[in-house]
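Subject: complex prediction, re-run

Hi both,

The earlier run crashed halfway through, so I resubmitted it with identical inputs.
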Amino acid sequence: MVMTRALDLLGGRLKLRHLVLVTAIADHGSVLRAAEHLRLAQPAATRGLREVEQILGVELFTRGPRGVTPTVFGTAFVDHARAVQAELRRAGDRITGLANGETGTVTVGTLLAATNVLLPRSIAALKAERPGITVIVREGTFDSLVPRLIDGDTDLVLGRLNPIDDRHGLRQIPLYDEPILLVARSGHPASTTSTLAGLLGYPWILPLEQTSLRQELEQVFKAQDLPLPEDRVECTSILTIRSLLLQTDMVAALPALLVRSDPQLVCLPVPLASVKRSVGVTLPGSRALTPAAKVMLDHLRTQSTTLEP
Amino acid sequence: MVMTRALDLLGGRLKLRHLVLVTAIADHGSVLRAAEHLRLAQPAATRGLREVEQILGVELFTRGPRGVTPTVFGTAFVDHARAVQAELRRAGDRITGLANGETGTVTVGTLLAATNVLLPRSIAALKAERPGITVIVREGTFDSLVPRLIDGDTDLVLGRLNPIDDRHGLRQIPLYDEPILLVARSGHPASTTSTLAGLLGYPWILPLEQTSLRQELEQVFKAQDLPLPEDRVECTSILTIRSLLLQTDMVAALPALLVRSDPQLVCLPVPLASVKRSVGVTLPGSRALTPAAKVMLDHLRTQSTTLEP
DNA sequence: GCGTCATATATCGGGATTGTCATAGCTCAG
DNA sequence: CTGAGCTATGACAATCCCGATATATGACGC
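This time it finished cleanly. Structure:
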């Protein structure tokens, strides 16, 4: 028996039209009807079929006076042809879905600040409108998230706006203002202390040195000629911070919205006016946002307006 | 947000080349390398990529000075492109497999005669050589199998060759000769009876009227001016026949190979010279045999030569 | 037989497709 | 700031692709 070499249908002259044609012929059981259905003259259809058959080296349909009937090869090939077409349809759907932002993934890097209220609300709103979008949240410091932003792993970073590191050409969009407050557990002995100096005797929880909040806090101390508290913990984990606050007499600087929603914490009447309050998103300057990221940004914007009071 | 209409990639000018190109670019991370790999100049590759992007309406790769990197759309689309190509490869394999007879299905209709020895041996030989071929066996009478042969449900019919019903343009190929013998259980009171007339007093099992063997048997009786036995059962089920033979004093006409392999049956010394002995295959005249059927036919041929005694 | 229905073949012209070469533009590294 | 390494673009030629029209061929039913 003559063994034929395995076929390569990709390099050759097989066209997608051929697949469409062949399935149409199979569906209608007739070259003529298939031709009508595809809006072309019968000779074109016949020739197309012969082309495929020549490419494959086998007869796909046996011609009869009452139409055509598929051969073994015909039925087999039509199966695959249908599969290919289905795959292409899926590809089309996928692309339009992604382009319309109905589908896709958005990865949000988040700093401590906005994590509490704005982000959950925005995610909820986004999922309500576009259930097809997958949201990935990545917690971290600004410095650790910026590289992710650059290499495309993360679409946008949400949090207190840091001084822009212009080397990477990042863009920043302010969303709302949220004061930073000094807080302690309710019942803390310094609950009514209204000067920074009066708090120096307590242990403090400060943000890591890399963060901009830390830098600004240091400025506050410096402006009043005070040293940094000696007894201090450096920490950004909100769960750890909260536990420490509740179980000890520590003092910390936290975003207002974090404090407001926690009855076990109180804020101390020490003004921190010089600390910047702007919370917003940081975006990669170069790359275009994916549609899904755009949608997320929209929701961050609208949700942030509801926070303003 | 602007909603794009769902894409139809089948009607448009998307070509399989585009899919190959896009995956090549994704694989090499560079239009230039992809071009080399596909043996064409870089401008051609660049233009091809732009074509796909225009067809899809999105950017698939972001161009960098160090090559290109896929966008969300790029990675998504490449996935589908790969799937399509895999499907086409499978299609090619399937077709060549079928064409080479490595794969596929052969449906054999079988009459009583050859079912016993030739068919099992042939199937065994075929499966040993081509494990990929599926064999379907359909038992029945010649008349019930011919329509299957015509409509393509059955590839070939194996059995005693009937007078060809030429309306359907069937072809017949004789394979070997196998006498028909009159048989009864061993120990039957007529074990040594050597004339047909001497057996008329016993009950008989005869084939159905539709079968050619029945016609020929009737000729045998007629030639000797004998009536058909009055006490008779008409049956083609070999299991039933055998049980009847063993449990009663019935007499039956069976192919030699069926008797030879069954020690509980004996053949009666009554010559049935005029009964045709040829066993073979009947094929549809019009349709071409599938490769799998051809292979089966080859094995039937070679196996039948080993039976000739 | 003859009309009908279906497929096969021949020929032809417009136009899209697919390449090439040459060259321009851009970005990063040294 | 210059060269290396990519991609983008423009111009142009050959081809092949694809459609239509006209006609032939073959099977079936009446």
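Residues 30-32, 42-43, 46-47, 50, 63-68 of chain B lie near DNA strand D (CB under 10 Å from a C1').

- K.
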